[in-house]
Amino acid sequence: MSDIYPFAAIVGHERMKRALLLNAVNPRIGGVLIRGERGTAKSTAARALAALLPDVEVVEDCRFGCDPQQPAQWCTECRESASGNGSLTGIMRPTSFIDLPVSATEDRVVGTLDIEQAIQRGERRFEPGVLAAANRGLIYIDEVNLLDDHVVDLLLDSAAMGVNVVEREGISFSHPARFILVGTMNPEEGDLRPQLLDRFALAVDIRGLRESADRVAIMERILEYESDSTAFADKWQPRVCAISTEITRAREIVDAVTYSRHDLETIAALTTSLSVDGHRADLVILRASRAHAAMQGRLAISERDILMAAQLALPHRIKTGPFDSAGLEFDELENCLQQVRSDVQSAASAEPHPDESATQEPIKKKRT
Fold first, then answer.
1. Is 280 a catalytic residue?
2. For a 10 Å CB count at each end of the chain, is N or C smaller?
3. How many whole angstroms separate alpha carbon 139 and alpha carbon 50?
4. Which has the higher per-residue pLDDT, 315 or 251?
5. Cβ-based neighbours of 233, under 8 Å, separated by 6 or more
6. In angstroms, rounded to a whole number, what is the distance separating the alpha carbons of residues 95 and 99?
7. Whether residue 174 sits in one domain with residue 30
8. Mean pLDDT score across all residues of the chain
9. Final residue before a domain boundary, out of 176, 202, 224
10. What residue numbers bound the domain in which 307 lies?
11. pLDDT tens digit string along 221-237?
């Protein structure tokens, strides 16, 4: 697609690109919020991500893009069709990209049930919404902080559960709603409520690049793109294809990526030491760690995967502490983890050994 600026051509902002790619590998992570000043490629990155996502197999004529290989996740219509026909035919289609306006209503997002049709004719008629069109695709919300809080809640709930359930007057309809949720905003125009901010799995704060060489590279690439977008896209196509292939391979193995109890303890140590509220951050770090390992072609997570994921999952969940002003850097997280381990070891060495405490008591009694 020559009209879409290539993802691989974006200069800098590696943390933002990593957050987007991890969600592309595993949408169950729960979305990413990109906060930054104007003109920092937030919208460009979201649209570029959708353009490089691989095609997906869907049930032919299904309005919700159900995966023919995952019958447990089929919509109500596919289940009824399969019970009558026995099998469903699959076709390939491009990954969908939905640009959600800030004026979107609840019915526009989740869809509507025709109650009058159900009462008069006993037929269940469902009019799909944005979540149906975005299943196994990407929903992009520019200025998400200006979207109605209730609608944001609905989107985040569906992103977390992977299903959209609409119930009206005792009539229910459900369909899969697995999508990558990307929200962008300029903090100068107002922030999200803390409750909604925490619901975004990953968050990235970006600003204009400070190195002159980077700013020159941006100007050169933009001018080249505007001069001949087709030639520019062809130039970056090999790298775009490579990233797309990495996503496809990572999706195939991400559910097989393993973790140990030690890994869980490492995650818990980080969130506890930074006084993170709730347990959502722990689960987000684990899911993002597995996605990061899968992107690297590995079947087990490492401490580096955990720290890379924590960079994205913790900054917007920390209220106070030494990392508030500048965010979380990899070496700061590493030092924090080392400090926690040192404190644990010191506490363990200060406690009396069980055998020692057992022999000390009789000696005290003998002296008295």
1. yes
2. C
3. 9
4. 251
5. 1, 2, 4, 6
6. 13
7. yes
8. 81
9. 224
10. 261-345
11. 999 999 998 999 999 99
